[in-house]
Write a structure and sequence with these properties.
single chain, 367 residues, 4 strands, transmembrane
Amino acid sequence: MDTIASLFSFITTPVSWVIVQFHSLYGAIFGPDSGWAWGLSIVSLVVLIRICLIPLFVKQIKATRGMQALQPKMKAIQERYKNDKQRQSEEMMKLYKETGTNPLSSCLPIIAQSPFFFALYHVLSAIANGQTIGVINQSLLESARQAHIFGAPLAAKFTDSAEKAASLGASITDVRIVTAVMIVLMSLSQFYTQRQLMQKNVDLSVKTPFMQQQKMLMYIFPLIFAVMGINFPVGVLVYWLTTNLWTMGQQMYVINQNPTPGSKAQDQYLTRLLKHVTTHGDVKGRGKKKIVAAIVAKGPDRNDNERKFIAALTKQGLAAQADGSVIKSAEATADSDAASGGAAKRQQPKRQTKSQRQTPPKPSSKK
């Protein structure tokens, strides 16, 4: 881990500078040597990084949904060219190019965040070894070494010896309890985030190998975090737990406001939207209107959730429009007539009875 972290030493100075700036703010409140001052500085670093990564997160969502939509076509290519791996790869690349999908886009936030993670690890390792690094001078180094979070130093690790913990002013028992609790919380938050994605925000109408891979990752990632976590300093555990909680909250917001078509989350969202429409008589909000407009534009290609939503609107005497608004069905009929030039409906002739049809018409009398 130290070798990997050293590769990103070129950004340790910016990372240490950001931490020091936040520390000067929180130090004025909690005291410069307080664990809260240094711990909140790391939390603020995460928040700042994640705010900067929001555009990449949006791209990640679009890429993930694009990959989900392509799964049936990808499966067909795999079956068609299962004996020709080269042709299979060529057809896959052709499919990505035609649809403008990049499989690596779903990994962009993690890739972009990795340098900051390893740079922070490099900074904390230097603090643990009593070395100045970046803009952290000797006085800040001593302050950081005195900072404890629930009795565990920022630079301490689960695997440290009792002597190493004592040199940082803590007992090995406190260090291991705090790190163990944080590792468990970090793994659980990762598991819950992935489970939430699989249970609520996946199109259940399409069964593909992609879904099986996601299920496997739901169990593998928390185990990886648990194993790696014992080698992370407390400060890095604070960083990773914070970013997991941010990801979980960010994903919950996306699932609630812009769910994947065909998913359980979409069914729940459209149920809430229907209640909103029946209460207000129209769609309030730009985001809601965009979703209704997208459903209208799909026409016969709507999924079961969307068809159920349109049918429920019809039962309420409402009709969704192309601009995302909703009007009463009678108004929709009137608008349709106006769009066709206001032509009056053709009047059907009055139906005759059987006796009238059998009676011959009377001859007209001539004067």
